[in-house]
């Protein structure tokens, strides 16, 4: 609270006697802390960064009889390696050689262009699939960059899988 000026009468004249005004700041400090607390609880400091992964619905029949075989030319496999390196191939276990595992990088739209070229050369475009296989040495940033490149290529059929032992063997000889 604040103190007020008191008027006194001395011999017919009224004089104002001034007192020093003192303001009690305790209620104001309480109000300030209440407001700070209110805004801290009601404010979002940062928005979460979320990547939208299109996950399929659970299949009621886990072992379908007439499941189409994708084939080597209807898919492209990307292996995300260490040191920002990325390799790709369109081969199976028997045909994959060290020369068949090609390397590219994330600069520009190279990965999206490779996906588009593989899609154009696919015999059955309706079942064309992109397979992403991160290694143990790959970084999360490279995985996110790969997902961005898939969305740049405007392809919705993709899968994330572990690297197979035969691919790992070729990959390790390639990075040495």
UniProtKB/TrEMBL annotation:
Its main location: membrane. The keyword Transmembrane applies. It is a single-pass membrane protein; Single-pass type II membrane protein. The keyword Transport applies. It is found in: Cell membrane. Pfam families: ExbD. Keywords: Cell membrane, Membrane, Protein transport, Transmembrane, Transmembrane helix, Transport. Belongs to the ExbD/TolR family. This is Biopolymer transporter ExbD. It comes from Chryseobacterium oryzae. The lineage of its organism: Bacteria, Pseudomonadati, Bacteroidota, Flavobacteriia, Flavobacteriales.
């Amino acid at each position: 609270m604040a103190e007020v000026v008191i008027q006194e009468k001395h011999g017919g004249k009224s004089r104002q006697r001034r007192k020093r005004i003192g303001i009690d700041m305790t209620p104001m400090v309480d109000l300030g802390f209440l407001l700070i607390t209110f805004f801290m609880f009601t404010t979002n400091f940062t928005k979460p960064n979320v990547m939208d992964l299109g996950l399929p619905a659970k299949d009621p029949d886990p072992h379908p009889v007439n499941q189409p075989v994708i084939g080597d030319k209807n898919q492209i496999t990307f292996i995300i390696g260490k040191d920002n390196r990325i390799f790709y191939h369109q081969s199976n276990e028997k045909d994959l050689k060290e020369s068949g595992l090609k390397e590219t990088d994330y600069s520009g739209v190279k990965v999206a262009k490779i996906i588009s070229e593989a899609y154009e050369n696919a015999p059955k475009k309706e079942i064309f699939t992109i397979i992403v296989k991160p290694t143990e040495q790959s970084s999360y940033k490279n995985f996110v960059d790969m997902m961005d490149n898939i969305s740049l290529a405007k392809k919705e059929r993709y899968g994330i899988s572990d690297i197979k032992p035969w691919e790992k063997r070729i990959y390790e000889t390639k990075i040495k």
